[in-house]
Amino acid sequence: xxxxxxxxxMEIYFPPTCVQQEALEAHDGVSKGxxxxxxxxxxxxxxxxxxxxxxxxxxxxxTLLEKYGIDPKQIGRLxxxxxxxxxxxxxxxxxxxxIFEASGNTDIEGVDSTNACYGGTAALFNCVNxxxxxxWDGRNGLVVCTDSAVYAEGPARPTGGAAAIAxxxxxxxxxxxxxxxxxxxxxxxxxxxxxxxxxxxxxxxxKLSQTCYLMALDSCYKHFCHKFEKLEAKQFSISxxxxxxxxxxxxxxxxxxxxxxxxxxxxxxxxxVDELSKEKLAPFSSLSGDESxxxxxxEKVSQQVAKPLYxxxxxxxxxxxxxxxxxxxxxxYAACASLIHNKHTTLGGKRVILFSYGSGLAATMFxxxxxxxxxxxSLSNMAAVMDVEKKLKSRHEFPPEKFVETMKxxxxxxxxxxxxxxxxxxxxxxxxxxxxxxxxxxxxxxAKKTKDSSCDKSLAGH
Length: 462
Ligand SMILES: CC(C)(COP(=O)(O)OP(=O)(O)OC[C@H]1O[C@@H](n2cnc3c(N)ncnc32)[C@H](O)[C@@H]1OP(=O)(O)O)[C@@H](O)C(=O)NCCC(=O)NCCS
Hints:
The protein is of the alpha+beta class. The protein has a single domain (6-415), classed as Peroxisomal Thiolase, Chain A, domain 1 (3-Layer(aba) Sandwich). 38% of the residues lie in helices and 23% in strands. The strands form five sheets. It has a nine-stranded mixed β-sheet with strand order 5-4-6-7-1-8-13-12-11, sandwiched between helices. A four-stranded antiparallel β-sheet has the order 17-18-19-20. A hairpin with a 5-residue loop joins strand 19 (444-449) and strand 20 (455-460). It starts with 5 loop residues before the first strand and ends with a strand. Bound molecules: coenzyme A (COA). Residues 31-34, 37-39, 155-156, 159, 192, 204, 206-207, 209-210, 213, 249, 252-253, 357, 359 line the site of coenzyme A.
């Protein structure tokens, strides 16, 4: 039986093209501060016509394998989580197979998992469960979360983003799953869904999705605490974890979510809530569940009470989601990557609780424990490989007009065939894959920008 199964290595890719939320506020004619303070977002990354979920995953996987010196033959399972549909049958996983076929490895289990932003977590659980199971063949698993989050013009558009994350899964990992501690909540809701197959945009009931998210959070926390308490014979509270990582459609919801956990701890009479906070929360103790989701006063007071703990336990996880935007399946793991980026020198031995939410809806709260690990599979090497600061700094800011223009072109291209892209990879870093063509049979072709900064014409991914 494999021990200490978890994340051995991690790489993140997000497009180098972005738009500042402040500029978007002015362009959209909304009040100043609505996107930056109201939603808590700084910047939004987006794919131009040369990038998509496949090219981003090709980039994330190849750079992970290269930077950690992993032999593609050592991968026995590859799982992809995504909600960005480019083909109703062919999995994104199969687009990644040429990387492995080149070294003669086609013996790789796994396909794609989809349920809004939860698909990445389903893929991750599949991989971890495989390594912990009797069908494990001793090789490592690889999980890819990849999405381009785009919305029609309107209030949801500033909550877009794009990224791909690749995670190597195996034993003796520096990020270990505490697999027994999990609480899930699965239910039927129409809060966000994509019924129109001719469009990349979702149908979204923004307010309902916030309530569904918070209800799922409460339910997962209840189940999580129950399981923890049964196994450990002591009460769980937010004091039992050093950090909390949330799926982040936009930062304001993360602030509200953590405050909700503090309120839950108050209702459970947990030791994490001090006397002064108890006094402040007391007027809300008799609210019904439904009333509590709509109480603006509770929201305000609980966020105020939670603020010092938020700064300590959540703020270090927010960098990439604030600067890149919602990355759907990759969003939670980008928050986890932010934590590793910010705190890798002090994370050893600490527990972190993650909350994964996918509209529709599927949600799980689960627990990870950090170990320093040994190179190349160490927390410090993970931070060095991801090099988040450099990736953020080397981006190109587009004016909002150019962003809107790109969205229009992408609407036109979605589901289309028989076109070649501009093949302009001048903004991409060497080693980045890009889309060159979709032929008359909808087959997609990709190329890789070479190290000498020229655009390589050799086709990959097909
Ligand atoms: C989230 C969403 C509903 C917000 O759109 P909206 O209804 O136009 O926005 P609101 O009017 O509620 O404003 C958003 C916030 O900014 C605040 N705000 C508005 N103008 C502001 C300003 N000038 N300065 C500071 N804050 C401001 C609002 O008070 C509100 O804060 P609150 O949530 O604490 O009440 C919309 O972006 C959306 O649908 N997003 C996609 C759905 C999603 O991601 N759901 C998450 C679950 S997965």
